[in-house]
Specification:
Number of strands: 14
Oligomer: single chain
Shape: globular
Strand content: 35-45%
Structural class: alpha+beta
Number of domains: 2
Radius of gyration: 28 Å
Order of helices and strands: HEEEEEEEEHEEEEHEHE
């Protein structure tokens, strides 16, 4: 009789131990992050003159046949919002990109997996951020002071886009790049928000949206012979026309 009781006791103890072990395993499983819900997204920005990638040593022609070359091209992208397939918006709060012609890929970090129907971003910096002191930011932050200055001083704000180069300013072009291109475009009214209807998915660790910036479209309606310089103030009319051309200069590539 005693042996039967002992066996029953051991069975009960074994069952309780087994049950508690299962509960612990289930609990541990629930604490493991579900990586299937998160992916990584990058934006690639490529700069073009028409169908040709911008190379700083290369001479190009605008649509009128006027020769020019670019020696520096940088711009800010901010206020990025992804649009999910169901119409919900996903703002990437605080994410600012300083795009440099010499760099192509910009990582946005972890993004919820799923299907997206579009996105938008701002060329420039929102008004509140635009008037903060760059010294507030860590040196690695795009909004900090840059080796090539992208800021006029904290009272005025950031340079949203900087374009530098040389151009033939002769009335009849001779191929002599005797003038300079110097565009520093900034100030709150010159912010431009660009919307893109573009279907893409985020799944896993490698997801990319490829953007093309065509500087010929930015030069549309601009006479490089006489309108090759603006630092926004003075020259606001020219700066405003250049900023408005951003709306057509950015496209998404397959």
């Amino acid at each position: 009789m005693k042996s039967i009781k002992s066996v029953l006791c051991l069975a009960v103890v074994g069952f309780i131990f087994s049950f508690s072990s299962c509960k612990k395993d289930d609990s541990d499983a629930n604490n493991i992050p579900n990586t299937d819900t998160i992916g990584e997204l990058s934006f690639n920005f490529r700069q073009f003159v028409g169908n040709d990638r911008i190379v700083y040593s290369q001479v190009y022609n605008d649509t009128s046949g006027r020769p020019f070359k670019i020696t520096n091209l940088r711009y800010y992208i901010s206020n990025i919002v992804l649009i999910k397939a169901n119409g919900l918006e996903l703002p990437l709060s605080g994410k600012v990109l300083l795009v440099d012609n010499e760099k192509e890929q910009y990582t946005l970090g972890e993004i919820p997996v799923g299907d997206y129907s579009g996105l938008r971003f701002m060329v420039g910096i929102d008004s509140a951020t635009n008037h903060l002191d760059p010294a507030l930011y860590d040196a690695s932050n795009p909004l900090s002071y840059q080796p090539v200055s992208m800021h006029w001083g904290w009272n005025f704000g950031y340079i949203f886009m900087k374009v530098e180069g040389n151009v033939d300013t002769d009335s009849v072009p001779t191929g002599n790049l005797n003038g300079i291109i110097s565009y520093d475009i900034g100030s709150d009214p010159l912010v431009r928000v660009i919307n893109f209807n573009h279907i893409f998915s985020v799944h896993g660790n490698i997801n990319t949206v490829n953007f093309k910036f065509n500087i010929l479209k930015m030069f549309s309606g601009i006479d490089l012979a006489t309108e090759s310089i603006t630092h926004t103030n003075p020259g606001r009319d020219l700066a405003d026309r250049i900023a408005s051309n951003w709306l057509l200069a950015f496209t998404i590539e397959p």
